Task: inverse folding
């Protein structure tokens, strides 16, 4: 929005607004500022109305004391993210609107889920079938849109890291299926990870920064050619969305850090995960994204392995899944689990970024 205004009124004097790098920095600062400003009001509103998180009976006993903590804090993230993106991104860019749509669609699904949990004082919320159906419709819809609006062959090819000349044409079915699994899978993976104070949001911030770098390079002809990456016209604007997410996430972490004053809830976790997954698809880095978002992958795999092991053998691999609960039950204090997972998340993002040059 600001880009349009300044181009129209003050183009000669504020050419700075035309640079993605400047707008990326401003987007992060704006989103963080909005989060920090609205945070206290949001938390106070939730406390006054006694809108608190119901705790699952299947979780560790140490979490029972968290019952009643204000939830749906992901609303703060979405407000800050949307405001900042609308202010600093190029609103003529279709990728910006596509990612915003998916973010708000999955956020709406999470909002309904959180609302039902609070209304009936039950941690169940939406049924799994209803939730996955809604997620599937949103993911498939955006996959179809991206496929039919693709303007270069790279839009629908799968690129293999370490090899700059390997690009596998996905075709219609392959692209739709891959996009579906990346978006829906990441959305639910972030939701599974959101079980400790600040555990999910900080890795999401790291991944957003990493994807922002990929987006900037992919959308720049010179950098894309130099790094042996696909050139995706218009993808650079997603760096602004990524930085806005990072800023909004850091602002939210101010209140979500241990001991949390507010929980993210499904409204935030589902939206953040879906947005990250879709950006990975747009910049054609789905394989690298598996490494970059490794914390979320590990958390999801721990649940899959736990369920499969128990059904097949009657035994559990972990004391409790997702795996962060396993370490809690082994005696690790919650802050230690959180910070160590953060450290792993940083290293995984750096490993993913290293693939930009190793091609």
Result:
């Amino acid at each position: 929005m600001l880009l349009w205004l300044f181009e129209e009124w003050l183009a000669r004097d504020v050419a700075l607004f035309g640079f993605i790098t400047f707008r990326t920095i401003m987007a992060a600062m704006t989103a963080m500022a909005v989060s920090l400003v609205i945070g206290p009001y949001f938390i106070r509103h939730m406390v006054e109305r006694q809108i608190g998180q119901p705790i699952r009976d299947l979780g560790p006993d140490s979490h029972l004391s968290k019952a009643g903590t204000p939830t749906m804090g992901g609303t703060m993230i979405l407000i800050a993210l949307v405001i900042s993106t609308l202010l600093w991104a190029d609103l003529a860019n279709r990728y910006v609107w596509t990612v915003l749509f998916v973010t708000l669609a999955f956020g709406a699904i999470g909002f309904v889920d959180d609302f039902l949990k609070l209304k009936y004082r039950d941690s169940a919320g939406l049924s799994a079938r209803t939730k996955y159906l809604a997620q599937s419709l949103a993911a498939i819809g955006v996959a179809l849109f991206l496929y039919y609006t693709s303007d270069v062959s790279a839009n629908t090819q799968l690129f293999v890291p370490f090899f700059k000349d390997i690009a596998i044409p996905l075709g219609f079915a392959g692209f739709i299926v891959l996009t579906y699994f990346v978006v829906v899978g990441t959305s639910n993976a972030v939701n599974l990870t959101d079980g400790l104070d600040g555990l999910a949001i900080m890795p999401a911030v790291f991944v957003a920064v990493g994807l922002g770098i990929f987006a900037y390079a992919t959308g720049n002809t010179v950098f894309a050619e130099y790094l042996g990456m696909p050139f995706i016209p218009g993808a650079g604007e997603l760096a602004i969305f990524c930085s806005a997410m990072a800023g909004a996430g850091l602002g939210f972490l101010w209140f979500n850090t241990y001991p949390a004053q507010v929980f993210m809830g499904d409204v935030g976790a589902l939206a953040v995960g879906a947005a990250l997954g879709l950006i990975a698809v747009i910049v054609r880095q789905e394989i690298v994204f598996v490494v970059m978002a490794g914390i979320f992958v590990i958390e999801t795999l721990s649940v899959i392995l736990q369920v499969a092991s128990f059904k097949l053998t009657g035994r559990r691999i972990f004391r409790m899944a997702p795996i962060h609960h396993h370490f809690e039950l082994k005696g690790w204090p919650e802050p230690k689990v959180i910070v160590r997972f953060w450290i792993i998340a940083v290293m995984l993002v750096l490993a993913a970024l290293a693939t930009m040059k190793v091609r």
Summary: Strands lie at 157-159, 167-169. The chain has a mean pLDDT of 89. Residues 27 and 244 are 5 Å apart (CA to CA).
